[in-house]
Design goal:
Layout (H helix, E strand, L loop, with lengths): L2 H17 L2 H7 E8 L5 E2 L1 H9 L3 E15 L3 E14 L2 E16 L2 E12 L2
Parallel strand pairs: 1-6
Antiparallel strand pairs: 1-2, 3-4, 4-5, 5-6
Helix pairs in contact: 1-2
Length: about 120
């Protein structure tokens, strides 16, 4: 996998997040995913998928403002700054977040195995 391939995966992920496309997310997230959100809460793949499936989180805007990608043999690290707007648990939110994702080549393809996000001050 090269940088353009990872960039394509990141684009697919952003579109799936915005559309709450659970099937697409299921193919992009590793079964043993660990995601740490901006509050420090740890999410599993099932948590993330259910958040989209049941409307707990809705993303209305997701604009990637910056992105760096480092590719190694069987893994890649992405760091992205994103402008995000939507609702969580029915409450509106908007802000800038910085995501760090670890993509790894697995038996079923390239998947996100770990991710973390943090708030970026305006």
């Amino acid at each position: 996998m090269d940088e353009n391939g990872i960039r394509d995966l990141e684009t697919r992920l952003a579109k799936a997040m915005q559309a709450s496309d659970v099937d697409a997310l299921d193919t992009l997230l590793a079964d043993d995913l660990t995601f740490v959100d901006a509050t420090g809460k740890v999410w599993s793949k099932a948590d993330d998928l259910n958040g989209h499936r049941y409307g707990v989180q809705r993303i209305e805007q997701l604009d990637v403002q910056e992105q760096s990608i480092r590719v190694y043999e069987k893994c890649a690290i992405t760091v992205s700054k994103v402008a995000l707007r939507g609702t969580f648990g029915g409450a509106p939110f908007a802000g800038s977040l910085r995501y760090t994702r670890t993509w790894c080549e697995t038996a079923s393809g390239w998947r996100i195995v770990a991710a973390q996000c943090s708030l970026v001050p305006f």
